[in-house]
Amino acid sequence: MRIYEYFLILKSGLFDKKYYLNQYEDVKQHAKNALYHYIKNGWREGRNPSALFDTNLYLTHNPDVKRKGINPLVHYIRYGKKEGRFAYPDNSIPNKCYTTNQNIIPSWIIEEMKNIGREIDPSIYPNNNRLSQYLYYSYPVHTKPGEIYQKIVDQCKYQHYTHCFALPWLKRGGADFVALQHIEFATKQPNSKVLVVLTEPEDSPWVSRVPNSVDIIDLSKYIWELPNEDFLKVITRLLLQVQIDVLHIINSKYFWDAVKFYGLAIRNKTKIFASLYCDDFDLDGQPVGFARDYLPSCYMHLNTVFTDNTYFSELLHNIYGFKKSLFKVLYSPVNNVKMHQQNPSNNKSILWAGRLDRQKRPDLLLNIAKKIPEATFYIYGEPLLESQKEIIEELISLKNVKMKGAFNGVETLPFDTHTLFLYTSQWDGIPTIIISAALSGIPIVASSVGGIEEVIKNDRGFLINDIEDIDAYVKSIKTIFNEQEKALIKAQNAQKYVKNNHTQLSFFHHLENTPYYIKNHIDSLS
């Protein structure tokens, strides 16, 4: 499953969790996430995401979509709606009428109407038949948002927070690791009160790493109970009613939406920050993601956008004309990695680690492993956002590949026992796993994308400029095997660079000097 499709459907309002689970009992019993099930399997099985979209009808009437094997709901949201393609037989949403036969017309009005009817026109005389046609209209009172808002507020220990971090989840990953660094920094400030809000219905294995003093609210349990618009209003109400000095958005779509639609109100009392690291790319190769979807409509409400590399901030400046002062580069800190054993040997052991998703290009890894049968590839990771089932199965079948499964943070990776670290990502900022590998002193072969070149220059490692060039990866790997002493010199240069630029002390120092991010700045500058 691609995260882009997940958020696209979620934002459209065309997926109804309650409808989906009530319609399909097997999903209700076995699936952890209804929307994930629909994206991964449901549409292929002809299941409908809601009463407002007929999967089979759409594919039947649009053979071009069926032929390409595209998720019909994604196609409808992106193209079909604009093209006038039908999503449901009547292509309309039924309107509910809130009426009753209750007669709420006061008796004195009825008597007056009778007098007028007698004197002016018998056709308007309110006889019993006519009175029975006057229906009582009751404005629909939707209490659910208020009920949920009360549940959320009840979980807030304080009426005033110095920092609120808006995250989709806390999984095992680079962005999540950096988020934890921000949270740790905030908790170390004098008189700080920190709130973490999780907004997506996924597991958060790293929530245990959040300091005990931090309040954590999982909003994801409520998102299926409200339409998207009402859920957004609940979030905005929370930001307006609870005093929050600093809001920091790290990959939470809902809080980006809140700033997009209600940013002017929010920024009147709250300083707003965001973290953006790189673009995502859809199957057409087009850049997508939070920076593209939200920054053009939200930048005027933001105090600072944090990024972990210079490349991405300059890219956004050149494309959209955002002021360079909007961005601040914060080099991600790493520590506690296993140090590489720097004694040259005949060992031909290659370490690869990351999500086994499209972004990390496990297909490249597969082709590289096929071309170097004399080397052993140790692969750490699992698919998190989308399925790469066929590629993973083929990797498993190779005799020179050892699948090691998930890992709980870069500090658990065995940099100390392998000859080199291989990284094959198609897009990135400066991934913490690259920084960690460099800190360990292991030679690195990496695709030259995003900000990776800022760490692994040619005198610090082996960069692959054409990331599709399998032979270039193979050549660099064999160079390390044959010239290990020279490769270790490059690795030592990378290690020295990271020690000088990617420390927690440096990270915290730059945050301390970011206007409005901590309370003494808020007091002195506001």
Structural notes for this entry:
- The protein has 526 residues and is α/β, with parallel strands linked by helices.
- It folds into 4 domains: 81 residues, no CATH class; 39 residues, no CATH class; 185 residues, Rossmann fold (3-Layer(aba) Sandwich); 154 residues, Glycogen Phosphorylase B (Rossmann fold), CATH 3.40.50.
- 42% of the residues lie in helices and 13% in strands.
- The chain contains 22 helices and 17 strands.
- Strands 5-4-3-6-7-10-11 form a 7-stranded parallel sheet, sandwiched between helices.
- α17 links the parallel β13 and β14.
- α13 runs parallel beside α14.
Structure keywords:
22 helices, 526 residues, single chain, Rossmann fold, 4 domains
Topology:
Blueprint: H1 3-12, H2 17-23, H3 25-30, H4 34-42, H5 55-61, H6 63-68, H7 72-83, E1 99-100, H8 107-119, H9 128-131, E2 136-137, H10 144-154, E3 160-167, H11 174-187, E4 194-198, E5 215-218, H12 228-241, E6 243-249, H13 253-266, E7 271-275, E8 280-281, E9 287-288, H14 290-298, E10 304-307, H15 310-320, E11 327-329, E12 349-353, H16 362-371, E13 376-380, H17 389-397, E14 401-405, E15 420-423, H18 432-440, E16 444-447, E17 462-464, H19 470-482, H20 484-501, H21 504-512, H22 519-525
Parallel strand pairs: 3-4, 3-6, 4-5, 6-7, 7-10, 10-11, 12-13, 12-15, 13-14, 15-16, 16-17
Antiparallel strand pairs: 1-2, 8-9
